[in-house]
């Protein structure tokens, strides 16, 4: 049995976006306990030339919604990228997940061999067949930004671990 594009992507986004929302809940509790200004964590970055937490979450959600919309052949919703609080970032995660769940899985699956055109920076465009676009561009970039968001919070001292990042993965213990 082969794994379809929708089977190898939608559950990934459901698990990851839901887990990140729970991680942001822990970040909010941490910020409250430490009496941090609410803008501190969303503006924190690991290095001066890296995106801050808010932008990491924005890019990860853009990859999920835009990538899946392109595969489904529909126009993705446009988000303003104006989130400044953890609560706003959680709302963005929810909007993204709600959108991804509306997509027609048959259309996503049918895009495997279709050429997908997508922006690469302000002036360039990339072109890949659908299966390559998902497996070699969308998912690796999504995981990069989700992992970096996690690492920023962990670096700040938020008590999260690997299990928080992997929350919701269907795992059976024997």
Written description of the protein model:
By secondary structure, the chain is mostly helical. The protein has a single domain, classed as Up-down Bundle (Four Helix Bundle (Hemerythrin (Met), subunit A)). β1 and β2 form a beta hairpin. α1 runs antiparallel to α3, α2 runs parallel beside α3 and α2 packs antiparallel against α5.
Work out the number of β strands: 2
What's the name of the CATH homologous superfamily?
dinb family like domain
Mean pLDDT reading = 95
Major sheet, described briefly? 2 strands, antiparallel
CATH architectural grouping: Up-down Bundle
Structural class: mainly alpha
Instruction: Give the number of domains.
Output: 1
State the CATH topology.
Answer: Four Helix Bundle (Hemerythrin (Met), subunit A)
- Please report the first level of CATH classification, the CATH class: Mainly Alpha
Low-confidence stretches are none
Order of helices and strands: HHHHEEHH
Q: What is the CA-CA span between the terminal residues?
A: 25 Å
The radius of gyration over CA amounts to 17 Å
| Beta content | 5-15%
How would you classify the quaternary structure?
single chain
Number of helices: 6
Give the overall shape.
Answer: globular
Q: Within the largest sheet, what's the order of strands?
A: 1-2
Proportion in helices: 55-70%
Output the keywords.
single chain, 174 residues, mainly alpha, Four Helix Bundle (Hemerythrin (Met), subunit A), two-stranded antiparallel ribbon, 2 strands, 56% helix, globular
């Amino acid at each position: 049995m082969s794994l379809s594009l929708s089977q190898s992507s939608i559950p990934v986004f459901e698990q990851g976006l839901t887990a990140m929302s729970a991680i942001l809940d822990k970040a909010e509790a941490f910020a409250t306990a430490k009496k941090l200004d609410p803008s501190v964590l969303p503006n924190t970055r690991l290095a001066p030339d890296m995106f801050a937490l808010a932008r990491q979450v924005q890019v990860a959600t853009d990859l999920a919604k835009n990538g899946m919309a392109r595969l489904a052949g529909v126009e993705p919703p446009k988000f303003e990228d104006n989130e400044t609080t953890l609560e706003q970032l959680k709302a963005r995660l929810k909007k993204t997940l709600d959108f991804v769940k509306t997509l027609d899985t048959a259309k996503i699956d049918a895009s495997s061999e279709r050429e997908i055109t997508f922006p690469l920076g302000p002036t360039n465009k990339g072109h890949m067949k659908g299966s390559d676009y998902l497996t070699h561009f969308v998912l690796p970039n999504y995981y990069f930004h989700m992992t970096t968001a996690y690492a920023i919070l962990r670096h700040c001292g938020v008590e999260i671990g690997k299990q928080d990042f992997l929350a919701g993965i269907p795992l059976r213990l024997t």
